Amino acid sequence: MLGLDEGKMAVNLARNTITEFLESGTKLEPDSESLTPVFEEERGVFVTLSMEGDLRGCIGHPYPDSSLKDAIVDSAISASTRDPRFPPVNLQEMSVIAVEVTVLTPPEMIDAAPEDLPGLIEIGRHGLIIKHGFYQGLLLPQVAPEQGFNAVDFLNHTCIKAGLAPDAWLTGAEVYWFEGQVFSEESPRGQVVEKQF
């Protein structure tokens, strides 16, 4: 678990990375001496950008495949310039964009019968990954409470995100869960808080 100060470091690293990349096209090299040891640990992470309450970009590393600091830098650049759902962010927008960083636990396959899944998933605690063949979709833990989803809605929408039928979780798709710590700017460049759901 990260402390709030580390959460602030994570969000600041994401914002500074985006600003540097948009200003100069260069990738920020994180200063390890100004970060705590947790940033050297391999962690999954997502960077989410929102503008006036609407999503403006969200990309990350679902699995702990690189150090937290490197995953934040890569995810921040990708969320701001490579999310296929949105045009790239421009520098002027960063004054009205709020930055959020979600640090993930490693995903684990849920070992349960499909019909039992809704009773196991805790809204606000669990994020989901659903896989079937080449298809894969992920929704972060904060999505369900923010969208008012119950567990069945959450499963259905994760399937849709994967490009699958909404009920694929009942018909053979693999379902994984993970947890996340969510650190977010309350307003663009504002105070960073840890969100609780």
UniProtKB/TrEMBL annotation:
PROSITE patterns: AMMECR1. SUPFAM superfamilies: AMMECR1-like. It comes from the Archaea. Pfam families: AMMECR1. Residues 5-194 form the AMMECR1 domain. InterPro entries: AMMECR1, AMMECR1_dom_sf, AMMECR1_domain, AMMECR1_N, AmmeMemoSam_A, Uncharacterised_MJ0810. This is Protein BHR79_05465. It comes from Methanohalophilus halophilus.
